[in-house]
Write a structure and sequence with these properties.
Blueprint lengths: L3 H9 L4 H9 L11 E6 L14 H10 L2 E7 L22 E4 L4 E6 L2 E7 L3 E5 L10
Antiparallel strand pairs: 1-2, 1-5, 2-3, 3-6, 4-5
Helix pairs in contact: 1-2
Length: 138
């Protein structure tokens, strides 16, 4: 069994974090996301910044709690379906896309040691091609 710390380290050092997340969570055919929820795996900051700075373990682990970008893994049957309260105007997300959300709007779960969040569809804010473009450092 993988430890959470080992998983975080592996993701922080991955050349392709999307591929590493998908390999780590494995087959999700036996996982059903309910209602309008979206299951996203948290993007972990790379160990080394673009400027060559090596981040500390505590900085990387903070991604678990403060991370605002995640990889869509699965979504519930009513996610992004218009109803009496919400009109999505055709917007939707697909598994494999990176999305942005507020950490306080999501419930934490782990899937095979990978930190994930359950987020309501209407609480997703953006889709980004590259998760590293979303930063919070001054």
């Amino acid at each position: 069994m993988r430890t959470a710390t080992a998983t975080i380290d592996r993701l922080a050092g991955a050349e392709d974090q999307r591929a590493e997340i998908l390999a780590s969570v494995g087959d999700l055919s036996n996982v059903e996301v309910l209602h309008n929820k979206v299951l996203v795996a948290i993007y972990i900051e790379p160990r080394k910044t673009a400027g060559g700075i090596i981040l500390s373990d505590s900085t990387i682990k903070e991604s678990i709690w403060q991370g605002t970008v995640g990889l869509v893994l699965k979504k519930g049957k009513t996610a992004f379906k218009d109803d009496a309260n919400t009109d999505f105007h055709g917007q939707d997300v697909k598994p494999g896309e990176w999305v942005v959300f507020r950490p306080g709007d999501a419930r934490r779960v782990q899937i095979r040691g990978v930190d994930c969040r359950m987020v309501e569809d209407s609480l997703l804010d953006m889709v980004v091609a590259d998760p590293s473009v979303v930063t919070h450092r001054g």
